[in-house]
Amino acid sequence: MLISLLYKIILDKRAEYGYGNYESIIDDIARDTDVDSDILLNLALNKESEARLSLKDIDNICRYFNITVDDLFLNILLSGEDGCNDDDENSYYSNRYKCDVHIDEDRNDKWGNLLIGATLSIGFVDIPAICSLSSDGFVELAPIQTLCVDDRNFLTVFLVNKELRETIEFELYNKLTNSAWYQYNSHYGEVAVSLYPYQCEENTLTSSWICIDNL
Question: What is the number of alpha carbons within 13 Å of residue 112 lying toward its C-beta?
Answer without folding.
Answer: 7
